[in-house]
Design brief:
It is built from three helices and no strands. By secondary structure, it is mainly alpha-helical.
Length: 159
Amino acid sequence: MRRLVTPPMIAKHVLAIALIGGFLALGWWQISRASAGNTLSWAYAIEWPVFAGFVVFIWYREIKEALRPAEAAGAAAAAAAAAPEPAPTPVRPPVLGTKAPKMGSGFRRPVLVPRRAAVATATPAPDPTLDEYNDYLAWLNANPGAKASQYPGRRRGPA
């Protein structure tokens, strides 16, 4: 129970109580507006208590998670007393800046995978339309002050 009265948990308790109270008050306010004739407020009158229920769910999960290590430590002590010699656990190197994930959490450390070298592709067949457009762009680059109407057309052969 000591884990439930630490400063971070007290802040979570206060935040949860404030949010639940605020959401229920907003729901009551929407009910009063809906009974005055605002039909849209009926949807909000249902929505705000759902938000309060979500806060209760998250709050319950936080409390359950805070109490879990105490239960796990008690179970580990009972298992250690029953088993004469525990099996050695492999020591893993730590990941920089993180702590090891819980066993069975579904998350694993990232693995570096070598990249494959780029495979050379065959040269595509020449496209006359693309070649003509590239010639046009080269001419515009060579003649910065020229207008598009001054383009002499595609040059045949070497330039």
